[in-house]
Amino acid sequence: MPRLSKLAALTLCAGLLxxxxxxxxxxxxxxxxxxLAPQLGLADGEVVAELIAGRHIDAGDVxxxxxxxxxxxxFTAAGDWCLLETHLHVAEVLADIPQTKKGxxxxxxxxxxxxxxxxxxxxxxxxxxxxVGTPLVVAAHAVVSSPAGTExxxxxxxxxxxxxxxxxxxYIGFEVEQWEIRVLxxxxxxxxxxxAFPQYGSGDLYELEEHYLGLGAVVDYTEDWPDDLSAYKLVxxxxxxxxxxxxEYYFSAGQKSQLTDYMRAGGRVVLLGDxxxxxxxxxxxxxxxxxxxxxxxNADRATPDGDVCVPITDITADQVxxxxxxxxxxxxxxxxxxxxxxxxxxxxxxxxxCTWAGNSEVINGATFMAVDxxxx
Length: 376
Description:
- By secondary structure, the protein is mainly beta.
- The chain contains three helices and 22 strands.
């Protein structure tokens, strides 16, 4: 039975992805397919520059990071702005960026040039042909539009690096980073320990350890809470299961503070709630509330054992669910979504039915997968 095998972990910066379901009968499939891992921005560092339109207007951001194969350059328009064109050139020295004799850049001659139909987000992938530690110069240009008109825009960071010509065009610096995935698989605070489901295999935090090791990741699979989360690119927390939910396994104030700081700094957190709403609801919700996200787990069972239920197809298009058309969850609790949180997958509305032990227990329309972004 497929178990969320196509889900990507959170791709939003500083966000949290919560599942109101886990598999009571064994491990879930890996959450992050290898082909989606680069979208997590798992290099050691990244550069975020402003996309400045008309010399003085903040029209969005340009974000750069790399993995082992590519440099990723993400253009994001903000407010009422959208992207009509993007141009990009990456070089080791400024002289290698196309310019006029007077030192003004020529965007039309850049290596990458694309036209768009007023979109808000666009990412370019530049093959990585430079060694780790190589300093680069990046010229990122866009034509942006708003109700007030159309402007040319350039990526500019705090250093305000300008071309030698007389126009106001700018470029930014970027250094190729060592690519490393370091993942924390944490099963403390009452989470399921290794071998919790021997009848269904290792049960090693839903077999995610094997998956991330296969990606070449450095994996810390432990019940010991680390002193510093900043070394990790992804943190997976396992719900407390049936080991107590009266406060004895609540995350401490220190853990909550660390996780909040980690998320605000761009870290990705995935929280796996336990089997339906029977176990760990208080522990999960205490943590969700402390993290300031608009997601809470309900003490219900939105759908029973997925082995006897047809797949669910009510899925919202999002980076997290890209390419996903159906899910086959098991013993799923519902999630309440509010504020900036977004429902990503729901129990199909009537006439979807699922019978378990002779009882139809589906809560039609209930959200069981949601995403939110913590305030910066």
